[in-house]
Design goal:
Blueprint: H1 3-6, E1 7-10, H2 14-19, E2 24-29, H3 35-46, E3 50-58, E4 62-64, E5 69-71, E6 75-82, H4 89-92
Antiparallel strand pairs: 1-2, 2-6, 3-6, 4-5
């Protein structure tokens, strides 16, 4: 897989924006990717050094409409910690 197939999109929430102060960035990633692939993809895409990677498998939640019941899709989230003093400029608004 290429790096842009591994890292699908950034997750920009209030909690993830607070984690950026500590050098941690959150991404939605390909469900088949592992920690090593995610660290390498972030390093190649943004030109930084990824130190650690934590993975969370987000489970589907029940979803109801008038006519049908269903579930949201399951997906994988990764929290990547960068080396001390490094930032991703795209997130910082530069």
């Amino acid at each position: 897989m290429s790096p842009d197939q591994i890292v699908l999109e950034p997750i920009l929430t209030e909690k993830s924006n607070g984690q950026r102060e500590y050098g941690e960035y959150t991404f939605r990633v390909n469900p088949r990717a592992n920690k090593l692939q995610i660290k390498q993809a972030v390093s190649q895409l943004f030109g930084v050094h990824a130190v650690t990677c934590r993975i969370i498998n987000v489970k589907p939640k029940p979803k109801r409409t008038r006519a049908a019941k269903g579930r949201t899709a399951a997906w994988k989230k990764a929290v990547v910690k960068l080396a001390e003093g490094e930032r991703i400029a795209v997130f910082e608004g530069a």
